[in-house]
Every structure is written in structure tokens, then in C-alpha cells.
Design a protein that fits this description.
172 residues, 6 strands, 45% helix, 14% strand
């Protein structure tokens, strides 16, 4: 909502203007409604270039009382590392087919590089974060059997309790 406020007299400051007061009250009500909400945010690999802006928004949301869990991607970085290591990669229906060798690189990139970089950046920006890998405590499991998926990267939370537990650990 956009409000235009004009001032005709010096005592007609924005803080005394009814439209300003209404806007502030609406904003405070909205902010209060966010308290204790759980937001799961996916930062896709292709959007990692905007990571600082996204992380700043998430830090602000946390400061407003939102419980934030960030799930990140890293497909472009994975592909770059696979090329550097001369490991062939293929895609089926838009999903990377992940064999044991590719999975080792995926873990290295997602858990060892991107995850740690995001946690460090959040800390530098004044936020608090803990990085967890999908394989920690079986947070993620394969969506379908290995033979049906050819070990593609589809994954799903293993239990409904996983996300609240992850949130409690992350203090995000």
C-alpha cells in the first residue's frame, strides 16, 4: 500500500497524520502475526547470486519472530565441480541422475562448500545459523527406490518432526 502525505503546516508532521498512524498500526498488526510462524525457504542454486539479499530478508524475518529454515540448492556449482573432475553427468526429465561418484561430489559441494558459505555469510551479517546436511540424522531420504529413480536427487523430509527439530537446532 502506498500513501502520499502532504504537509501544509509545520505542526502537521507525518506522525500526527491519521493515514500515517493507520499505516503504522496495520504494519504492527502484520508484524505481530508473523511471530512464531515457521517459514521454509528454498534458495535455489540459480538464485545463489542473490543470496546476500535473501539472507538479509531472512535475518529480518527472524528478528520479527519468524522461525526460518533455509533449504539451498547448488546445481550450477555441482555441475562445475563435476566438469572440473571430469565426471560425466546426465539429466533425465530435468533431474540429475546421481550415481555413487556423482553423489560424493554433490555432498562435497552442498554440505562442504555452499552450506558453510551460507552459514558464514549469515554470521557476518549479524544473524545466527547452523548448517545441516540432508544426510545428518536422516533429515532427507530418497523419494523413490534407487532402481526406480536411478538415484536422482529427489528427496523428501523423512518425518514431520524433522523440520521443528531442525529449527530448534538451528536457532534460526
Amino acid at each position: 500500500m502506498t500513501q502520499v502525505v502532504s504537509h501544509e503546516a509545520e505542526d502537521d508532521t507525518p506522525t500526527n497524520h491519521p493515514a500515517f498512524i493507520d499505516t503504522v498500526q496495520e504494519t504492527l498488526h502484520f508484524v505481530a502475526s508473523l511471530n512464531h510462524k515457521l517459514f521454509v525457504v528454498k534458495l535455489g542454486g540459480s538464485t545463489l547470486e542473490y543470496q546476500q539479499a535473501v539472507l538479509q530478508d531472512l535475518i529480518w524475518l527472524h528478528d520479527l519472530g519468524v522461525k526460518v529454515i533455509l533449504v539451498h540448492g547448488g546445481g550450477l556449482a555441482i555441475t562445475a565441480w563435476l566438469q572440473k573432475l571430469h565426471i560425466p553427468t546426465r539429466f533425465e526429465q530435468g533431474m540429475r541422475v546421481t550415481d555413487a561418484q556423482v553423489l560424493e561430489v554433490v555432498r562435497m559441494v552442498l554440505c562442504g562448500q555452499i552450506n558453510q558459505e551460507l552459514v558464514a555469510l549469515v554470521s557476518e551479517m549479524g544473524g545466527n545459523a547452523v548448517g545441516l546436511c540432508g544426510t545428518d540424522s536422516h533429515i532427507l531420504s530418497q523419494l523413490c527406490p534407487e532402481t526406480a529413480c536411478s538415484q536422482n536427487n529427489a528427496a523428501t523430509p523423512t518425518t514431520p518432526a524433522t523440520l521443528p527439530l531442525t529449527h530448534k537446532l538451528s536457532r534460526w
